[in-house]
């Protein structure tokens, strides 16, 4: 049976806030093998009967089921478009078969809501309840409201809302949607998002009231390494544009404006770093209820709003990946520390907030301080939070039971210190609510080693704790910035774990917007430090353009292309990528790149005592990245059929030659004897011809020197296992992964970590802490080992070699068995469907199970196979260290005997 499981638009299900014709992909399912799509029919309509569609592809003969973007279709703003698709497919040589010989699917339906398709359509001003300049030092919440009338026969209504600051949007007393921390964090002066809501059911005939509660957030609160205020502005404000359509064809627009009024909210203080104080005695029941009018001043000190000027040409709609509550985790226990302090333990390090339910009297106070870790004696440890207060405080406004959570902040925590509480706190009163961008889960690995299973859990939760609208470095201390280096090295792991396309697409827009005029890339995006670099000891040495960090401009779009097969992101970021390559070319000296501040192999263990900078010289690491990004950009230009591809291929060749001439001696050995120097030379393909084995042996010697341990930092660590396994050292790669003593990934696991740490020795073997100045216990960068576990251990890989292979249209299923594992079971949800690989070992016999999605194919490689016992109908041929067969879609069970080289599975 042929079935379309789902249809996605711009990689989202039923998105609201689409600015241009989306691209469509659909997932097929069949009980047959080798199923290939022959044709499809896609329709888009303003009504659900599809009698008069605005687009009908007709029966289009094509095997493409992804990246379909209808052309020459004029969409309208604020319309809920229905979408449906059906396909014809079959097994075997379908593309040469007659359409009537193929199986036809039923229709699969979806929808998308358009935003305002032109910036000129935005008419709503930003209104503020704050008064400038008195509000510059305040971080309190405010309320704004306005009333409007709805006539009879309302057919549909759409609201477009945003803020300078953070906001919750209300209609007739009810919060609209489940979004949190809207409109998110962007480079406000150059890029601001608005949210789109279908609010038809929220309205009624007659008088209605719209309102918003607004907080300081990233916009004006204390933020950044310099802890500056008012980084984007000093006056919070809200804007709403409401489109009303009636059955008789009338259309009305309602906007924020001078008739609105404002007052203070019960949120008397709220900032990202410092938490929130909520005084319930200041609540105004029914403040934006439907039964009030704009002239109703019976409660609260309402006053006229001020209009805040803003360039609305930089407004764009948010189509997906909005922040919301994802998990709700009940407290595991409440206990008393040796110092006598009461602590709540949720059992998991995370980012979010705590919902507390309690009974109290008017004036009672609940105060909790969130933190990550206990010290060696089991007491509260706050030093690594630095200046962040991470406190939530609730003041009872009446006697009775309440349920409260903060509104405009989040914390990174596993524990909460109970500073104040009415009565005796019990675990059932506290629930942690995680907050991160909404992304569908896309991957899972389990294996016979429980420590590796926990490691997978840890880097997944590292993502969940740091993908809150931007890919931050950490969620707990007074930093939480979008460091480009962390984002770049973790990007491929993130794409295996979650559907991150929309998330990264938004962030890359800000990266492009924040580039310097000559193409430099900030260390953090959004670049909140842009005007304050001189105030920080590190940034004043160079405010932008550190290799490995700034290379996110090229590497992240390339990774998205590999994982989603989408050239649109390459087109969109092309000018940004080129500007970065040209910046490096302009500031290099004879192809050696080493511009101002280079972070290098950050926090590597081979650094000098007291230094964050690893021992590998930055002219080597920077030039290596100059070559790597230029090589990728040349490939991108070729994929997009740009005329300048040859130019950048030539530039790449010059950089590689200069790297080899500079950093290798006449005997073919690297002059720099560090692990990272060897790793980047191998992984980036910079080793002189004929010297690979020599370089690999050099890396192995350096590894042996450390008793098999890594001493690498941010640059060397992500590629270490790849550099080994790609070059005949699979055993060494597994040995490195499976080390359990310090320093290693599993050392953190055995020390009780539930996320990835910033430092290999965040907690030292003796229980003492690394320096509190920079010691995050939720810092996902070293979780980049995840992609090796998916690509090598599980063997789920997209085919980079085939132009049609990106995005897993053609996959390579090639698990490399080792590490003493008896089985590995993994899945990854591609845009075509789920790839699953499970291998089980018994003696020298492997049973491999592989699921390949419909309308795709894969090369199945049997690593070190000597004899295929059961081929399940596939034809295996010898390859380079494996046996290989081409397979169409379907489920396969293969049994083979393999070469168990000495010690590989011990």
UniProtKB/TrEMBL annotation:
MF terms (GO), sorted A to Z: hydrolase activity
EC number assigned by the record: 3.2.1.40
Domain Alpha-L-rhamnosidase concanavalin-like: 337-436
Membrane spanning residue stretches: none
Pfam families associated with the record: Bac_rhamnosid, Bac_rhamnosid6H, Bac_rhamnosid_C, Bac_rhamnosid_N, Ig_Rha78A_N
Top-level class of the enzyme under EC nomenclature: hydrolase
Stretches assigned to the Bacterial alpha-L-rhamnosidase N-terminal domain: 154-325
Domain Alpha-L-rhamnosidase six-hairpin glycosidase: 442-792
Name of the featured protein: alpha-L-rhamnosidase
Organism: Hungatella hominis
